[in-house]
Amino acid sequence: MTVAPPQKTAPTVHVFADKTALVAAAADQVIELMRDAIASRGRCSLALSGGSTPKPIYQAIAQADLPWDKIYVYWGDERYVPATHADSNAKMTYEAWLSHVAIPADNIFPVPTDTDSPQTTADQYQQTLASSFGTTLPDTPQFDIILLGMGDDGHTASLFPHTAALNETERWITVGQKDEQPRITFTARLINQARQVMFLVAGASKQAALSQVFAADADSATYPSRLIAPKGELRWLLDADASHGLPTTVERTVHQLTP
Fold first, then answer.
1. What is the structure's pLDDT at 8?
2. Residue 127 reports pLDDT greater than 80
3. Considering the domain boundaries, does residue 130 fall inside one?
4. Which of 105, 125, 184, 197 makes a 20 to 30 Å CA pair with 191?
């Protein structure tokens, strides 16, 4: 499978002393971006990621003083499991954040995993985005903020190495695969339309993949995070352990712990 990388934008890279500092900074930055979007456009559309790193960020956002009725929440990927399942990204987010704030139910758009097939779910979620954003193909919805993680293998959202989802250039939502388990995922096309994309990456296990994602020449089918090059701003927030995988040529801002 050959996947052509997009035209790369110049990301900003921020390195924090440890995961705790990364989480605190990410929460502050996301809250600031949410406020900026509301001030500029009267609302904020935010696509969330799953995993362990974002959970404390969501818990911190839940403590913020925000106009919740102007915030619209979506998920960049989801496992094809019931909403009550322990592996559900939406379940984690409700428990950490959404059930603790006065956000209208109509502003929350979980992936509908109670369908007869993953493809049906992908079709329904794409229609949800079309209705919510008032956008139809060939145009693409533009999210204010998309949060992403990166796996040890270089995947992001549910865009896994050497899977068919990487070659999807027409749809906004598609079916990804991990170990023959279906996932519902944003496509690179949809992610790359966003105003702000923020990667949150922690741990020494990410070093090898980061070295290839930031390499001048590497295979995007093997390291799918290389496909992310949004029209807007791209931020990478790393802890020190993960950052050791960056090539020495990559410019970065190192944030020291406050004494």
1. 55
2. yes
3. yes
4. 105
Burial group, residue 258, by CB count within 10 angstroms (0-12, 13-18, 19+): exposed
Q: Within a 13 Å sphere around the CA of 245, how many CA atoms are in the beta-carbon half?
A: 22
Inside any domain, residue 6: no
What percent of the chain shows pLDDT beyond 90? 92
Domain with 213 in it? 14-255
pLDDT at 39 exceeding the cut of 60 = yes
d(CA 139, CA 240): 39
The secondary structure element, H or E, covering residue 96 is helix 89-96
Q: Is residue 75 part of a domain?
A: yes
Q: Name the helix (H) or strand (E) containing 157.
A: none
Q: What is the pLDDT of residues 179-203, one digit of tens each?
A: 889 999 999 999 999 999 999 999 9
DSSP letter for each residue of 185-200: EE-HHHHTT-SEEEEE
How many domains does the chain divide into?
A: 1
Q: How many CA atoms lie within 13 A of 241 on its CB side?
A: 13
- CATH number for 230: 3.40.50.1360
Question: CA 242, CA 62: separation in Å to the nearest integer?
Answer: 27
Structure-token pair, residue 200:
């949150």
pLDDT tens-place string over residues 113-124 = 999 999 999 999
Instruction: State the helix-helix crossing angle for 54-61 and 89-96, rounded to 10 degrees.
Output: 40
